[in-house]
TrEMBL record, chain A:
Keywords: Sugar transport, Transport. This is PTS sugar transporter subunit IIA. Residues 6-153 form the PTS EIIA type-2 domain. It comes from the Bacteria. InterPro entries: PTrfase/Anion_transptr, PTS_EIIA_type-2_dom, PTS_SugarTrans_NitroReg.
TrEMBL record, chain B:
PROSITE patterns: PTS_EIIB_TYPE_2. InterPro entries: PTS_EIIB-like_sf, PTS_EIIB_2, PTS_EIIB_2/3. This is PTS sugar transporter subunit IIB. It holds the Pfam family PTS_IIB.
């Protein structure tokens, strides 16, 4: 994949980031994706609403992750925003909104429609299921390294 | 042929992850089913027309079709039970 088509931009990787709560971190990630031209200005509001209605927290064995996303209408081009949180924030669990999970890694998906997304989503799901690969992210030292690692592992 | 509906909040992201997993599963088990994909808000009038609904989100109580929670297929934790529940619902 050449640099123009990159899905993860280092400026959309928030490493060791501090956030008060879910709203705060979703706003920070949306703003980063907007600045890099991945999403429209309507995305932030849409993703916040969507997360409140259809939560995306996923409790894995040793870590909580979340994959916030919203309708393709709000997306300019496919990208993923990544946050590695200094301290976990609480999300509701996908499919069981009364359950809560402390989330340390967030992958915010800006998804266009199209066949390419299906493959991407499939690989993303396989990536979650290899938890040791996900945990490596927490020990990475800089944004560039994280972006390169995810591009290699997922795409 | 049995009709299986896969749904999520958007009808795009997590249902796509799940539907691909299910295609593999049904092919492996050599079970012929018709798979449909939708979002939860679109199934209020049609949700009772399926044999089982596989969902990553909460399904409204007005839907009487058996619902299986598909989130374990995303995390990989407890996915065997999900597959068993699906087979049970299709009997």
């Amino acid at each position: 994949m050449n640099s123009i088509e990159k899905i993860i931009h280092e400026n959309c990787v928030l490493l060791n980031v501090e956030a008060y709560d879910q709203h705060d971190i979703l706003s920070q990630l949306s703003d980063a994706l907007y600045k890099q031209g991945f999403v429209k200005d309507t995305f932030k509001h849409a993703v916040l609403e969507r997360e409140a209605e259809f939560p995306t927290g996923l409790p894995l064995v040793s870590i909580g992750v979340a994959i916030p996303h919203t309708d393709a209408y709000h997306v300019a081009r496919t990208g993923i925003g990544v946050a590695i949180l200094k301290k976990p924030v609480e999300f509701s669990v996908m499919g069981s909104p009364d359950d809560k999970v402390h989330v340390s890694i967030i992958l915010m998906l800006a998804m266009n429609d199209g066949k390419k997304q299906i493959e991407l989503l499939q690989r993303l799901m396989e990536f979650f299921q290899k938890e040791e690969k996900l945990l490596v992210l927490k020990d990475m030292k800089n944004e560039k390294e994280i972006a390169a690692y995810l591009e290699t592992e997922i795409f | 042929m049995k009709k299986v509906l896969v749904i999520c909040g958007t009808g795009v992201a997590t249902s796509t992850m799940v539907i691909n997993k299910l295609k593999e599963f049904f092919a492996e088990k050599q079970i012929d089913v018709q798979l449909y994909q939708s979002k939860v808000s679109d199934i209020l009038s049609t949700g009772n027309d399926y044999d089982v609904i596989i969902s990553t989100t909460v399904v409204p109580p007005s839907i009487k079709t058996k619902v299986v929670n598909a989130v374990p297929l995303l995390t990989g934790i407890g996915k065997e039970k999900v597959f068993n529940d699906i087979l049970e619902a299709l009997k």
